[in-house]
Amino acid sequence: MSSREVSFTTQLRRAGVVDSARAQQLIEEIADVSGFRFVDPALSLSYYADPDTGLLQLLRVCEAAQQAGVVQTVHDVLRSPAGRRLGVVLGGSVALGDFLVRRPDLVSDFLEWEDDDPVDEVDVRARLLEAVGADPGSTAPVATVIGDEGIVAMRVAYRRELLRVAAIDLMQSDPITVMPAVGAVLADLAGAALEAGLAIARAAEKDHALTRLAILGMGKCGARELNYVSDVDVIYAAEPAEGADEQASLRVATRLAAAAARACDRFAAEPPLWQVDANLRPEGKDGALVRGLSSHLAYYERWAQSWEFQALLKARPIAGDPEIGERYVQMLQPLVWSAVERENFVEAAQAMRRRVEQYVPANEADRQIKLGPGGLRDVEFTIQLLQLVHGRADESLRERSTLTALAALRAGGYVGRPEAAAMDRAYRQLRVWEHRLQLRKLSRTHLMPEQAEDRRILARASGFATVEYMDEVWHDIRRRVRAMHLEMFYRPILPVVARLSTGEASLDTAAARDRLSAVGFKDADAALRHIVALTGGVSRSAAIRQQLLPAMIGWFAEGPEPDAGLLAFRQLSEQLGSTQWFLKLLRDSGTAAERLARLLSTSGYVTKALLATAEQVRWLDSDEDLKPRPYERLWREADSILTRSDNPEQAITAMRGLRRRELARVAAADTLGLVNASAAAGAVTDTADMLIEGALRVAIHTVREEVGEEPPRLLVVAMGRYGGREMGYSSDADVQFIFEGGGERAGAHAQRLATVLRNLLQKVGPQPSLEIDADLRPEGRNGPLARSFESTVGYYARWSDPWEAQALLRARPCAGDPDLRARFVEAVSPVRYPEVLKDEALAQMRRLKARMEAERLPRGVDPRRHLKLGPGGLSDVEWTVQLLQLQHAHRIPELRTTETIAALDVAADAGLLDAEDAATLREAWTLATDLRGAIALRGRQGDPDVLPVDARELKVLAEIMGTGDTGPELDDRFVRAARHARAVCERVFFGWEEE
Q: Which CATH number among 3.30.460.10, 3.90.470.10, 3.90.1150.10, 3.40.570.10 corresponds to the domain 623-832?
């Protein structure tokens, strides 16, 4: 083989030829038959998807043309720019090549087209009707070329148009741009074929004038996005001509419909076009082929299933009587757009999609362009469901075409811009692959090929340089489409919106005002003004809020203060402005939207927190994000802040902000019922521990800089409810400060250290403060703010009153030197856990408790409604448990805990209380704690320790607590629990039965 032959062989292989020797032979044979020689065979063949097959088909066409005496025509085409179009078609479609072998004279058509011709510029209906000798201008054309001859003429005319479409399509450098126009023309061609078939049928039916038959295209044909090869889904509707009998009309229409279908799909001299499928008609295969309009309407009003309305979304007249077709569509449109109001419509659509996936064979799932995960059906079902849910209120969404509907969903804010762009491109690309696969043999296939050679041909046909790149795009599209489908198709908000009435979903002014009043808004006019402000204008944000508000109004109304909730939502929306993540989160997560509405209409505390830091709305989509953070995690974040910052002000501000954030997290979880009040109190306590530990580090740094030496070691001891890990959202932190070491000026430096720490926590600033109360220290307010370790231990051992030993039961080191912590606990143990509780100490405790009940209750407050100091309230339970600790903790180490319920459980296990009494105290303390937490979360003015009288407010507290009680039921439950707890307190603490 010469070097020139080697070079030519290499060029052919680079052009995509597999068998270069065979290709060279075919080139020579083509030249021998047609007299045409390629100037640059490698360049010409590089445009062919399958050069080897394309050359063979070209030779067959030349030989057929020679036999038909039109070989010169083929020669002329090959010499002109049309030659490339012919070659590209022959290299991309074996079936169209076979058609030209049967009809070589039609090669001349290639001379009439240009590469940049619009694919949809031809009136295909007129061309196919003219092919059978029918008048395109007639509303009921009748063929003059009839029978088998007419059928062949129609099919040849159809395939001539298919050649034109394929030639323009295959010549595109970027085929996804022309894909929608290709699908539209293919649908028009299908309609034209049925129109021509109907014209042929009329010629054979003497009574055709008795009926007015319309053929409705469904599915892809109705949406004008048909494939090259696809079943054409249709529905037939007929009405009698003026003066005709209805039954006779239906009989004639049935014969015409069946004949029109046979013209397209029965075997004849020219192969069938595609299958005509009428199984979407009422009752499917078991139903009448043709029905009158009233019969269709009656079926859809009474018997149709939800999926049938989804199918009607695409219905379009494609052949037959246009007026009857339009009447059919207009008649059923109201039913289509109200179908979403049917019970469980959305859930049924979602279940149907899952069933379709289950029917895909496992060995095909990863190759399915149409039905598999991430395929065309994921796109189509997603868009159709969004249309049906929102389209009844937004008429801009009432589009048949998938891509046009997607554009409308994007414009209306129902789908985000990035997602819409990604879905649009993915859908186009999937359809291009589907088209290229079907063109090759004009066969109905939706599977990515398995064989390497077939994949190589597909890659070349669809514009990819390599198979590897095509595979990468294929996998990326499937992954992205699947993710978008799961996110949008299963949006939790869709079933909620679907359950609204049409008036509710549309937010029509009058309907909205009536609904607002009906569901509990006190000032419907003010609420309507908020809605108008939120949804007015043409911005995407307004459009998305228009989708959200119909559902959110219902959720606001479920809260105790819907007016306040809607106002807060407006404030939050205005604060966030055009921030897209906020509205996208609410649109795509029904959980987040419902939770936000509930929080804003229920908890003033949480509303204030969210308005202060709107970013926290992100948590509402996830239970994990709302879960309170453990102390270790909080401290790691605080330690990171302290390590990074050299500025004490910035560091303490950041840590106070961290505490504020975590209080908002706990409060939101508490309001939503994700944690109980006891767990919330522990989490709130953790935030205080973190902040005080961090503030102590800042204070040490500050004092060290001030005095020029190392200050003494400082210990912060939590007292009271803080020490018991039972803090509320607005609780002060009861503490005492203890120091050790530090030289001669240790006392002064320790006072300064404690003062700086307290000021850091209490200073007015952009983040909430934590009030420090040190009145429980030795000698109370008369004693020094910080006391030495030795002096503190000595005081408790020699001078403390019994009540101070009782207060030490709650003492819990919360910040400072680890060694001091351990030594403090050991040193005060004999004081708070005495071997014997002396009688005088017990008597003093009882006198002090009685005095508190008489003197500390606020004036004018019903003692029975005071959660803390009232009979059976928190104080009764806690003092009873603390008495048991003072009496028995010396010999029962498990009682040595600062937490009330933990100590109560140990007391019951140890037999210090019988099980019934322990359960009574636990119920009363837990209920009172839950009520205090719920009152704090309400965020209303008033004493947080007093149970409201108003039944409606009590109902709100019950909702926050998740008890399901009515207001009176909750009131009765607390009064009963408190009464029983008081009885136990009188017997165990006061010992009244003994007396």
A: 3.30.460.10
Alpha carbon 932 to its chain's center: 35
Give bridge partners of residue 531 from the DSSP assignment.
Answer: none
Give pLDDT, residue 988: 93
DSSP state of 316: E
> What DSSP letter does each residue of 436-498 carry, written as one string?
HHHHHHT----B---SHHHHHHHHHHTT-S-HHHHHHHHHHHHHHHHHHHHHHHT-THHHHHH
The confidence score (pLDDT) of residue 194 equals 98
Radius of gyration of the chain from its Cα atoms, rounded to whole angstroms? 41
- Residue 413: its pLDDT value, please? 83
Distance of alpha carbon 221 from the chain centroid:
31
Q: What burial class does residue 268 get, using C-beta atoms within 10 Å of its C-beta: 0-12 exposed, 13-18 middle, 19+ buried?
A: middle
The helix or strand, by DSSP H or E, that contains position 961, with its residue range, turns out to be: helix 951-961
Residues 814, 236: Cα–Cα separation, whole Å: 81
Q: What is the pLDDT of residues 810-822, one digit of tens each?
A: 999 999 999 999 9
Cα–Cα distances (Å) from 995 to 327, 986, 992, in that order, read 94, 11, 5
Determine how many CB atoms are found less than 10 A away from the CB of residue 798: 7
Amino acid making up residue 607:
T
839-843: long-range pairs with CB below 8 Å, 24+: 840/802, 841/802, 841/805, 841/886, 842/802, 842/883
Quote the pLDDT of residue 699: 94
CB of 500 within 8 A of CB of 554?
A: yes
Residue 172 CA to residue 92 CA, distance in Å, equals 13
**CA pair distance 82, 111, nearest whole angstrom:** 6
pLDDT for position 496: 66
- What's the pLDDT at 492? 63
> Contact at 8 Å (CB) between 124 and 185?
yes
Domain boundaries, the chain: 1-112, 120-342, 345-497, 500-621, 623-832, 839-988
Give me the mean pLDDT over the 748-774 stretch.
90
pLDDT band at 995; cut points 50, 70, 90: very low
**How large a percentage of the chain has pLDDT more than 90?**
68
Give the CA distances from residue 913 to residues 228, 542, 908, 917, 982, in Å, rounded to whole numbers and listed in that order: 84, 62, 5, 6, 15
How high does pLDDT run on average in the chain?
91
Res. 928: pLDDT tops 80: yes
CB 200 within 8 A of CB 259: yes
Which residues, in sequence order, are bridge partners of residue 217? 234, 316
Residue 549 has pLDDT above 90, yes or no: no
**Separation of alpha carbons 804 and 809, rounded Å:** 9
Intrachain domains 345-497 and 839-988 with the same fold: yes
The class of domain 345-497 in CATH terms is mainly alpha
Closest to 610 (Cα-Cα) out of 569, 644, 639, 578: 569
Burial of 447 (0-12, 13-18, 19+ CB in 10 A): middle
DSSP assignment of 38-81, as one string?
-SSHHHHHTT-SSHHHHHHHHHHHHHHHHHHT-HHHHHHHHHST
CA distances from 616 to 421, 545, 568, 767 (A): 29, 19, 15, 15
Q: Architecture of 120-342 per CATH? A: 2-Layer Sandwich (3.30)
- Ramachandran sector of residue 673 (left: φ over 0; alpha: ψ -120 to 50; beta: rest): left
Q: How confident is the model at residue 994 (pLDDT cuts 50, 70, 90)?
A: very low
Q: Provide the token pair at 435.
A: 């088209």
Question: Amino acid letter at 569?
Answer: F
Residue 897's pLDDT is 95
**839-988 architecture in CATH?**
Up-down Bundle (1.20)
3-state DSSP call for residue 38?
A: coil
- What pLDDT was estimated at residue 955? 87
Q: What is the DSSP secondary-structure string of 218-243?
A: -HHHHTT---SS--EEEEEEEEEPTT
The per-residue pLDDT for range 641-655, each reduced to its tens digit, is 999 988 888 999 999
- The Cα 880–Cα 727 span in angstroms is 20
